[in-house]
Structures are given as C-alpha cells and as structure tokens.
Amino acid sequence: MSRNYELFPDDDNGNVLWQMIEDGNDLTEPHEFEFTIVFKTQEQLEKCALHLLHQEQKVSFFQEDQHTDGSDLWVLNIHVTMIPEYEDIQDLEEWFSRIAQDFNGEYDGWGCMSYLYEYEDDEHLES
C-alpha cells in the first residue's frame, strides 16, 4: 500500500497516522486518543479540567514526579474516542492549545493505544 499524502501529510500527525496503518491498525474503527496539557500548579490544572468537563470532555490527571530543579508538573489528559482522521486531530490540537493558553498551561501532544489482534487459525496449527 502506498501512502496518500493528501490523507496523511508529511508532518508529525500524518507520519504517526501512517505508522499506525503500517503497524496494522484499522483507522476506520474508533480509537481512544489522549491529548495532554501540562501545568505548573494543581490549581491551574483543576480550573482547566473543570472547564473541559463543562465541555463534556473525559479527563484524567496526575502529578508528575518532582524534577531535579524542585518543580512539579501536573499532567491533564483529555480522552477522545474517535475515528482517526488527520483534519480532526489537527482541529483538536488547535482547540486544546488555545485552552492550554487560557489556563496558563502548555499543550504537550497526543497519543493513541494501538489495537492489534492476532488470530490463531486452528487449521494451520500443527499437532
């Protein structure tokens, strides 16, 4: 299969989506994505999380281990289940970046678990 650069442009998002296809993911099926915003304080994170909950977003958060400089980071994940499409990911990144700025956070990217299943065919198993 050759890459369609209109569907999967040559940038970070397009490259990750194309890699998901090469790894055997079915991008016509919904996947759960995690978009991440980091904050310096728990208070900033909580205000942003409440805002996102009012926007009907599913969120989770945790405090990252203390850094060598003594600072902590608070990590907010927004969980979005969707069919992976480049334009939708771009739009969500822009939206979450604006929200991060509004609440003094920093948008930190997205991730997606790969769902790969291997089926054993009993006819091809040797006894």
In a nutshell, what does this entry contain?
The protein has 127 residues and is of the alpha+beta class. 32% of the residues lie in helices and 24% in strands. The protein has a domain at 33-112: RraB-like (Alpha-Beta Plaits), CATH 3.30.70.970.
Please characterize this protein's 3D structure:
With about 130 residues, this protein is an alpha+beta fold. The longest helix is centred in the last third of the chain and has 17 residues. It comes from Acinetobacter ursingii ANC 3649.
What are the SSEs and their pairings?
Elements: H1 12-22, E1 31-39, H2 42-54, E2 58-63, E3 74-82, H3 86-102, E4 106-112
Antiparallel strand pairs: 1-3, 1-4, 2-3
Strand content: 15-25%
Helix-strand sequence: HEHEEHE
Describe the biggest sheet?
Answer: 4 strands, antiparallel
Question: Any idea what the radius of gyration is?
Answer: 18 Å
Number of strands: 4
Neighbour order of strands in the largest sheet: 2-3-1-4
Kindly identify the CATH topology of one domain.
Answer: Alpha-Beta Plaits
Query: N- to C-terminal separation?
Result: 35 Å
Q: Mean pLDDT, as a whole number?
A: 88
Q: Overall 3D geometry?
A: elongated
Query: CATH H level of one domain: which superfamily?
Result: RraB-like
Class of secondary structure makeup: alpha+beta
Which spans have pLDDT < 50 for at least 5 consecutive residues?
116-127
Looking at how many chains there are and whether they match, the oligomeric state comes to single chain
CATH architectural grouping of one domain: 2-Layer Sandwich
Helix content: 25-40%
CATH C-level label of one domain: Alpha Beta
Our count of helices gives 3
